[in-house]
């Protein structure tokens, strides 16, 4: 799944004529040793994509990871060393850093949320609000940051949202239709806006309830009403500041879409350490 993503990114960057700047300036026989180094503190994710970016340009490039995905880094820490033809390394640099910075940013943001609810029973999960084409790797980055994954797609489970309820004519009818159309291994989750809807859902039977935009007081009431009969998930306006009170309500899961669609990149740079002529065999 990774190689097509990296090939597409390289093609987007190289276009029809390749790296005009590097090919004009850098001698073909020049080799270099470089370091992928953190410019700020965070959690690393995405090294497999960075490695592929370099190796697809030239298989002679060697990528040595020094900090595994999921590891914490501070400014100046070397994440990996990349050795090989200077042209290839420079040509692949931006694609490698784009993937590495983006996924490390997601892992870092996830870790901040995970830390904010430490000591509670709540788990941090992502959503389907992902960059088109990058869902698998963005959800991987969430796991690298200590979070967990919600659905990967519409075919993972049934999640009945407010529009489904409106079309069905109510909570009970939506649940009945979903149950009639679901296989015996398919879980059913229902988005809940009010405690009245929650009562209907529990009476009808449901595997999980998505408690949307409820304040901590109502979340606590919802958890007490549910009493273990369904998995409870809270969503809406989740930040490291709001998450502790939400987790204290006793919910099982806290989902945040911004982890994948709006997390800031982690600043990572490529530093040259040594230049030499192409080694002879």
Automatic annotation (TrEMBL):
- Can you give the residue ranges of the Quinolinate phosphoribosyl transferase C-terminal domain? 106-271
The Quinolinate phosphoribosyl transferase N-terminal domain, residue ranges: 19-104
Task: Mark the transmembrane ranges.
Answer: none
Enzyme class name:
transferase
Keyword annotations from UniProtKB, A to Z:
Glycosyltransferase, Pyridine nucleotide biosynthesis, Transferase
**Domain of life of the native organism:** Bacteria
Pathway membership: Cofactor biosynthesis; NAD(+) biosynthesis; nicotinate D-ribonucleotide from quinolinate: step 1/1
Q: Which CDD domains match?
A: QPRTase
Its EC number is 2.4.2.19
This protein's GO CC annotations: cytoplasm
| Keyword Mitochondrion attached | no
Q: Which GO terms describe its molecular function?
A: nicotinate-nucleotide diphosphorylase (carboxylating) activity
Family matches, as SUPFAM superfamilies: Nicotinate/Quinolinate PRTase C-terminal domain-like, Nicotinate/Quinolinate PRTase N-terminal domain-like
Sorted alphabetically, the Gene Ontology BP terms of this entry are: NAD+ biosynthetic process; quinolinate catabolic process
Catalytically driven reaction(s) = nicotinate beta-D-ribonucleotide + CO2 + diphosphate = quinolinate + 5-phospho-alpha-D-ribose 1-diphosphate + 2 H(+)
Q: Which family does it belong to?
A: Belongs to the NadC/ModD family.
Q: What does this protein do?
A: Involved in the catabolism of quinolinic acid (QA).
What does the subunit comment say? Hexamer formed by 3 homodimers.
PANTHER family tied to this protein? NICOTINATE-NUCLEOTIDE PYROPHOSPHORYLASE [CARBOXYLATING]
Q: What is this protein called?
A: Probable nicotinate-nucleotide pyrophosphorylase [carboxylating]
Name its species: Methylocapsa palsarum
Q: What is the lineage of its organism?
A: Bacteria, Pseudomonadati, Pseudomonadota, Alphaproteobacteria, Hyphomicrobiales
